[in-house]
Amino acid sequence: MPVFDLSQTPLRALNSALHGIEHGANDTLFEITNPRGSHAVAVGIDRPVNVEVHGSVGYYCAGMNDGGTVTIHGSAGPGIAENMMSGTVIVEGDASQYAGATGRGGLLVIKGNAASRCGISMKGIDIVVHGSIGHMSAFMGQSGHLVVLGDAGDALGDSLYEAKLFVRGQVKSLGADCIEKAMRLEHLEALAVLLEKAGVIGVKPDEFKRYGSARKLYNFHIDNAEAY
Amino acid sequence: MSDHNPRTPPRKSMTFDDNTLAEIRRAAATGIYDIRGGGTKRKVPHFDDLLFLGASISRYPLEGYRERCDTTVVLGTRFAKKPIELKIPITIAGMSFGALSGNAKEALGRGATLAGTSTTTGDGGMTDEERGHSEKLVYQYLPSRYGMNPTDLRRADAIEIVIGQGAKPGGGGMLLGQKISARVAQMRNLPQGIDQRSACRHPDWTGPDDLEIKILEIREITDWEKPIYVKVGGARPYYDTALAVKAGADVVVLDGMQGGTAATQDVFIENVGMPTLACLRPAVQALQDLGMHRKVQLVISGGIRCGADVAKALALGADAVSIGTAALVAIGDNDPRWEDEYRKLGTTAGAYDDWHEGRDPAGITTQDPILAQRLDPALAGRRLANYLKVMTLEAQTIARACGKSRLHNLEPEDLCALTMEAAAMAQVPLAGTNWYPGKNSF
């Protein structure tokens, strides 16, 4: 198992090794120690590798992950798993701003809290936050699911497209064109699957409320000018 | 008082001219601002306000058609392992599939490739046709991140982080529902037929310190192979250029207000941003102050039309230029052959700018498959290549007349200005003097 001590090894060596794995290789478990808030750790993974990060990371850890499983035994800085294509990213601690921004697929699990703009411009990613999320989360979210076991801050789902939001706690306020919607059977079933995949135990889907787009801003109309 | 007193002719207001009156009536009738494509239509100081001095007793010209004048340029020499080598210093600017038809994007790729230069994607991602027909393709990294993925990042030849564009510095984009076809919707992960908004700022970074980290991430994902451009609109060119350099850019792309857009409010296009001429010298100054001129390359765009514009831009310190509107005209946009159809749309060839409506008779700014078929991408690509070659020959002609064996040897000293404004902006002497406003703190 390759071990990269980032207090001794340059970031370039780590990412280069992750990009250089051959198809069918056996050595697909990587361990990273002493990340000390480094930026761009384990970015651009394009193979089904497992990466264990022992410590907290800076910006954009696991950025554009495509098929890898990255676990951060610590907290994550801004943009964790930004633009993820597929795979799984797990943050054992808290996550800063823009968690899962523009993600197109895969699963992001944050076991602590996430700061503002969690899931901004999400395009298919599934995000499960065990704690609470900050303001402007899921702004312009296009598709995918954002599941929050705690509370959501101001302006949740502002200018939302088709992303589906599930919040178990309180929502401080909803953003423009975001409304509470009925929780139908299909949503309960999808939520149950997501909770299981995210390792959530003892929480039932019917404890959540669903939020989505009212679709009133999908085509510009002057009578909606105060909402723009 | 006599009935035969002379009458003054009807006099219209300069303030409330015909265009202004028409816009007030249009706004009153519709309740919505005017959206259109293109860049500013107002007259602003431009390269037309500069002249080359040419050779004389103190300057030795080169023989046209005999003595070589090099036109090549390499972009991305600062950090990238694989800089882009271009045969000519004229590139094709970013324009999206969505705003343009697939055939139009293919034509731009074909034309650029024939001429030995690069073309650029746009908001909405990279299409296989575009990649396949473009020998050198710059992949835009935009705030919307529509279609963004690591596979396309790696198959690009360079990456352009778009922070702004000259037609609308500080503004996002809007692709109206009538152009959101099934394919465009699928690429952008949006429902078909809705108005698609492009964000005005990036979702996961704020400010120059963050930008530095974002560039690091993209370099790491692409193994430091690709040149990374940073594109800014003409707002604060000195500081934006300096900050882009500080953030680690290989290339700065600077777009003045004559640069076009697919669709934006007319009031934005006409009232925000600075003319291209006013942007260039402050950007060059920033590079020189940092000791990075010619190390970080500068690409200027916005209203570049001919070889003289290219030569003037290079003389003022740019490494290359980029063209968008002119390239569309070269492949057939606003062509008088479609005049009957332009008239049906209430406009005329040369003035058609409702690109957002998707009814372009030339088949360029549309997603209508029947209209799009009107553009033959091979023929249109050939036309673009011809145009690029003419521009290059024109620039070479001027450079030789100034005694330069390389286009990039042109310098401000080769120029004079026709107006005080142009002299001040370009910092070259007013014709017939050795002075420009601001020189010697005067």
Proportion of residues in extended strands of chain A = 25-35%
Assign an overall shape of chain A. Answer: elongated
- Architecture of chain A, according to CATH? 3 Solenoid
The dominant shape of chain B is globular
Topology order of chain A in helix (H) and strand (E) letters? EHEEEEEEEEEHE
> Strand arrangement, largest sheet of chain A?
1-2-3-4-5-6-7-8-9-11-10
Alpha carbon gyration radius of chain A: 18 Å
Tell me about this structure:
- The complex is a heterodimer of chains A (228) and B (442).
- In chain A, 10% of the residues lie in helices and 25% in strands.
- Chain A is mainly β and 228 residues long.
- Chain A has a single domain (3-227), classed as Glutamate synthase, alpha subunit, C-terminal domain (Pectate Lyase C-like, 3 Solenoid).
- In chain A, strands 1-2-3-4-5-6-7-8-9-11-10 form an eleven-stranded mixed β-sheet, covered by helices on one side.
- The longest helix of chain A is centred in the C-terminal third of the chain and has 13 residues, at 185-197.
- The relative contact order of chain A is 0.09.
- Chain B has 442 residues and is α/β, with parallel strands linked by helices.
- Chain B has one domain: Aldolase class I (TIM Barrel, Alpha-Beta Barrel).
- Chain B contains 15 helices and 16 strands.
- In chain B, helix 2 (102-115) runs parallel beside helix 14 (377-401), helix 10 crosses helix 14 and helix 11 (325-331) packs across helix 14.
- The model of chain B has no long low-confidence stretch (mean pLDDT 95).
- At the A-B interface, helix 1 of A face helix 4 and helix 6 of B.
